Design the sequence.
């Protein structure tokens, strides 16, 4: 069982910027994890941490490290879910996989305060999470989504013969449409895979 004083200190460090969501008005708003995090932020503002938990899970499936960290914190503190140090261990370890220093320090600090049984159970839970939420699974999910989005948008322009200058209309959020070129769209979607893959290789 974790020492309560250590738990409080750990939460104080990690919750400082926990609920900040950047709502950038650009094409990256198309990214599924951003939409999920924006939805989670709305739940947080309403005080519905259970609703936020579901959206964090959705974002985490795309490899979003902040969402994975927030899930770990929810389990660590029992916000919107039952307190569960095993799940906190698993999610924080997953979130630390790309080397975020704050998450890595928090995970190591938590690790030093857990008993051997909890750590053993946490490793088992971590192995299960990796199958659905690990970086390899997230990369495959992103690549599949990008192929689908490009295919769908190319079919709306020039009857499938869209070039980089072809204009297409996309929805950034419900009721808000914008016109972009296929080149702009493809570059944005490609970055969703390339940037993530680069972080994987450098971690």
Sequence:
């Amino acid at each position: 069982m974790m020492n309560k004083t250590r738990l409080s200190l750990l939460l104080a460090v990690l919750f400082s910027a926990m609920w900040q969501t950047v709502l950038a008005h650009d094409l990256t708003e198309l990214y599924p994890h951003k939409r999920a995090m924006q939805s989670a932020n709305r739940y947080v503002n309403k005080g519905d941490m259970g609703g936020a938990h579901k959206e964090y899970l959705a974002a985490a499936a795309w490899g979003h490290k902040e969402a994975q960290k927030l899930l770990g914190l929810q389990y660590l503190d029992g916000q919107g879910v039952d307190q569960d140090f095993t799940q906190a261990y698993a999610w924080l370890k997953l979130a630390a996989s790309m080397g975020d220093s704050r998450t890595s320090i928090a995970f190591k600090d938590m690790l030093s305060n857990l008993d051997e049984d909890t750590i053993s159970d946490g490793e088992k839970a971590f192995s299960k999470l990796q199958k659905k939420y690990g970086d390899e699974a997230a990369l495959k999910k992103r690549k599949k989504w990008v192929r689908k989005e490009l295919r769908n948008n190319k079919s709306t322009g020039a009857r499938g013969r869209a070039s980089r200058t072809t204009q297409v209309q996309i929805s950034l959020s419900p009721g808000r449409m914008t016109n972009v070129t296929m080149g702009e769209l493809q570059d944005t979607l490609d970055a969703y895979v390339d940037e993530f893959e680069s972080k994987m290789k450098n971690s």
